[in-house]
TrEMBL record:
It comes from Candidatus Onthomorpha intestinigallinarum. Keywords: Cell membrane, Endonuclease, Hydrolase, Membrane, Nuclease, RNA-binding, Transmembrane, Transmembrane helix. This is HD domain-containing protein. SUPFAM superfamilies: HD-domain/PDEase-like (SSF109604). PROSITE patterns: HD. Pfam families: HD. GO terms for molecular function: endonuclease activity; hydrolase activity; RNA binding. Signal peptide: none annotated. Residues 72-165 form the HD domain. CDD domains: HDc (cd00077).
Length: 256
């Protein structure tokens, strides 16, 4: 509101107390309308119906909030879609899971700052606006602050973690991710005969290029095995990391 109001005032050129109050008032109304439209559009896009108008407004407000550098509305939409997919795979109701996923962080956008963890505040808001018990519990339990009472709660918790941990999603995650890639490449460069290294596929594969005149085929295979063991011993990582050592030889002649 402050940024838009300031932009309008500077563009207009008339800056005095009465004009400032007028512009701020108009901007507040404009933002409030945009918030409601964003909330409605989000619900339509996700196929969520019969959401209380106040919860629709809160969903719209998420567009203007971020958590660790990740846009809150985008994060909540991701979590909602992931929850629906996971619930379907487990034979649960995907509509309930999607609803809980979308609303899981509503406690982060309060009109008044409560002295409560955001998950608990979000649960109380959901209860206030008559959401189903499964949805309310999933919101309140997604950070283990209350006991999980249905399978929807761990689904929301897992999907929240997946969205937040995606490389590039959050600031602190980005830094740790880049450090992990650099460490992988530095490990590989420490082996004799290695020319270049590339950590690709978000760090799930490490390609190592060795000099053909310095490393034999047998040595290339040994580098691959030794490097895999070193990574396994010295690093913590999700899933697996594929180590590929490439030794290329070329024979080039010209026919004249």
């Amino acid at each position: 509101i402050a940024r838009l109001s300031l932009h309008k005032l500077v563009t207009d050129g008339r800056i005095h107390p009465a004009r400032i109050e007028e512009v701020v008032s108009k901007t507040k109304k404009q933002i409030e309308q945009e918030v409601i439209e964003t909330g409605k559009k989000t619900c339509i896009d996700l196929g969520i119906v019969n959401l209380h108008h106040e919860l629709v407004r809160i969903v719209g407000k998420m567009k203007y909030r971020s958590s660790y550098g990740q846009n809150l509305l985008q994060h909540s939409r991701e979590v909602a879609n992931l929850c629906a997919t996971m619930a379907s795979e487990l034979g649960l109701n995907p509509k309930i899971a999607k609803r809980a996923g979308l609303l899981h962080d509503i406690g982060k956008v309060p009109d008044n700052e409560p002295e409560l963890p955001h998950a608990i505040h979000g649960m109380k808001l959901a209860e206030k606006y008559k959401e189903k018990p499964e949805v309310c519990n999933a919101i309140g339990a997604h950070h283990d602050e209350i006991e999980m009472e249905s399978l929807y709660a761990p689904i929301v918790q897992v999907c929240d973690a997946i969205s937040g941990a995606r490389p590039g999603a959050r600031r602190e995650v980005v830094e740790a991710y880049i450090n992990r890639l650099n460490k992988l490449e530095e490990m590989a460069m420490s082996y004799p005969g290695v020319m270049k290294t590339y950590a690709i596929q978000a760090g799930r594969e490490l390609r190592v290029i060795v000099a053909a005149d310095k490393v034999t085929d047998q040595e290339a295979n040994k580098i691959s095995m030794d490097l895999s063991k070193q990574i396994q011993t010295e690093m913590v990582f999700p899933g697996m990391i594929k180590v590929t050592v490439i030794r290329e030889t070329r024979a080039v002649n010209y026919a004249k």
